[in-house]
Amino acid sequence: MKTPSRTSAAQSDNLFIYIIQLNNSNQGPFHRMYDTFANLHQGIVITSAHEGPNFFGWHRVYLSLFEEALRRINRRLSLPYWDSSLDFDMENPVNSILFSPPFLGNGDGFVTSGPFANWQTPSGPLTRNIAEASRLLSKEVIQMILTRCRTREISDPTAQPQFNLEIAHGGPHVWIGGQMAGLNTAAHDPVFFMHHAFIDYIWELFRIRQFRFCGVNPSRDYPPTMGQHAPTRAMDGLPGYRNIDGYRSYWTRFWYRYERSPRCSMRRPYCGTPYLTCDRMRGRCISVARMLAPDEGAPALGAAAAFSATGRAASPRSSRARLQAASIDVGPRFRAPPAEPRTQAAQLSLMRVRRALPEGNQTETSIAKSKGGFTAPPSDGRTSDAMGFNIASGVPGGHDRVIDARNNGHVFPVSEPMEVLPPTVNTDQRLPDNFTTYDNSKNGNVSEWLFVPVLVKYHDSSQSTRPNTYSILRPRQSDACFYEHTEVHVKVQSQGLNYLGAYTDYLIFESNLPASTSPGFVAVRAPNVGPSEAMVTATHGCGHMCLPTCLVPDSKPALYQPCAGILKLMPIDVAKFRKSYDDASATYERGRNGLDRPEQDPPIVFHCSPRSYSPWASPGRHVVAGL
């Protein structure tokens, strides 16, 4: 059951503790599992799970598997959704209690408070710059989306902009800024999963409307699509599922259900939590405001209040947040609605307009007075004339409830933030300028990269028996993969966990043989300063995943056991591997033939068959391949 945000601080702390445990850097059953999930939201997923109808289904399966990983730690846990419309309806969403120590920590620059303080990502320290641009979701936008009846009316590429839920979902991504603004980096901010749970909640409201009022079966309303969004295509990164599987009704029938977003009225002015207050005039629950720090300055309401004549933010924290957010490389950003007036982008634009006026002492105000004032629509209920808010001074006039409670936003004393583990030794996480994604067809600068051998074994399960060692991993409910040709193509890929980068190698097997073996080679950043960690996967045929097994350290002869495919290299391992694909391949062959040096046991061996084996479904122990 997914619950709304801010139900209680104690529940939030429990969730954050388990998210942190999911990313624990010590070896164990949940070793780097958070980074493993976060890294699924990059690469080919940027196109196959975005800008098309698979956006909804892929993210629903993704959230469900992530929640199940959390529930393996605590079966009573559920993933809450962040209803950002509760913050949009504030005077100034920047002041939301959500961005305070009991919840998500600060939103201005590097995250140094709250449960995710000093959280490290492959692109650098976790960073935010709230109200940078775009906008949060509003109830008006959600209501517009819920007037439609067919999925094609709210999804790319056929939806009109005002009804397009995917474009609307990009607003909070860009509004938060930092890693959340980038398609390849967003999932490394834990707020990603709470935001997408709310998008999934809106989609579920839409599906309920389809069934009850439109006479449409939501499980079959997958728009006709070809290419990566084709309904029967295997989901990228989520083995055992097809794109249309995310549209099945059983997710909300058997896996989870949603609590309704908080609401209130004149007769019932309660929202069920001290972190929300009821706006009786509009009959809406809104977030309470946190107490601002001394150096945050005036709330960013209007260009005159928050920006100086040079167009820079008057608040020192705002200036620092922009510089820190600009220091990280997030790659391509989400498509999002235009900036609303309370964001930095809109205010900078207003300042540019002000500076573009005719020379002299004439200002917008004097022009307005000389012409009798501007023609404008009535107040929207949030302006100073409606609520007594002095925009120039930034002092609230009694509308947004402010929480101080002597401990910077904590209402419940038990709700103390938990610090995460200290950052890794290696703080230089930038890649070479010409590095994007490695494969054998591109010539990149690999002087700082090592090529590690992995072994791939293809078994036809109808002709051979798998060893008992692998019986703990059972295939998910997926159909066997049948090949039209005699060749089986296997893609081996490494994705950095504490660095940003990926490499892909391709192998070919004969499908008519009962068993065959072939080595592959993946690039991993050289651990010159500190350890390097990468997630290595092998996918074959119609998208099914191969079973990874890791070398048991110091085992003679070599023993392997099921693992999550996580490879960890230490500085002492640099001399063991080569800096080019050709050298690594030649060295491996010489070792296998007994020349120059003994054959080195590969740290990971993959077992592929016509069925898919998923590490997410495994109750077994997840180990790390160390050398």
UniProtKB/TrEMBL annotation:
It holds the Pfam family Tyrosinase. Residues 50-67, 189-200 form the Tyrosinase copper-binding domain. Residues 360-381 are annotated as: Disordered. PROSITE patterns: TYROSINASE_1 (PS00497), TYROSINASE_2 (PS00498). The keyword NADP does not apply. Keywords: Copper, Metal-binding. This is TYRO-like protein. It comes from Mya arenaria (Soft-shell clam). The lineage of its organism: Eukaryota, Metazoa, Spiralia, Lophotrochozoa, Mollusca.
